[in-house]
Design brief:
With 145 residues, the chain is an alpha+beta fold. Helices cover 30% and strands 28% of the residues. The protein contains 4 helices and 6 strands; from the N terminus they run βββαβααββα. A 4-stranded mixed β-sheet has the order 1-6-4-5, covered by helices on one side. A two-stranded antiparallel sheet has the order 2-3. A hairpin with a 2-residue loop joins strand 2 and strand 3. It is globular, with a radius of gyration of 18 Å.
């Protein structure tokens, strides 16, 4: 299992921008992807990329605003974060950044779970492992029998 700790506030992937000179990735997105790749490379420490079907779990912690009162900070710490940014945009940036570092391509992921919560500071924890054997979905198992 590979565990990657990214000690920065999670960044959602922004849409590519298009202009007269073509399309480009916004600077904030490109910088965030470089940062994720850096921490992934450190976690990999020279190991080979994961191969085959993968199981990936990602926990996003978003920093609570400094303007919140001490009482509100205490109430909201470690609770579900149900506002922007959307978890799918956070996932897009993280999974795309890990391509070519932890795995060849994110299409290898057959099981993915993600959580998004409030915290005193922002961070992301990614756990990835090779799936020993992909289980047969219950509906398919009954149909096969």
């Amino acid at each position: 299992m590979i565990v990657i700790f990214i000690p920065e506030d999670p960044t959602p992937k922004a849409r590519a921008r298009v202009g007269r000179r073509g399309a480009w990735t916004p600077r904030k997105t490109a910088e965030a992807e470089r940062m994720v790749r850096h921490f992934a490379a450190v976690a990999m420490a020279g190991r080979e990329q994961l191969t085959g079907p993968l199981i990936v779990e990602i926990a996003y912690t978003l920093a609570m605003p400094k303007s919140w009162s001490g009482r509100r900070l205490a109430e909201m710490n470690d609770t579900a974060h149900v506002q922007l940014p959307d978890v799918d945009n956070l996932l897009k940036l993280t999974l795309d950044a890990l391509n070519g570092v932890v795995w060849a391509d994110d299409r290898q992921i057959y099981s993915l779970s993600a959580t998004k919560r409030w915290g005193r500071w922002g961070e992301t924890v990614v756990k990835a492992r090779a799936a020993v054997e992909a289980p047969i979905a219950p509906a398919l198992k009954v149909a096969a029998e």
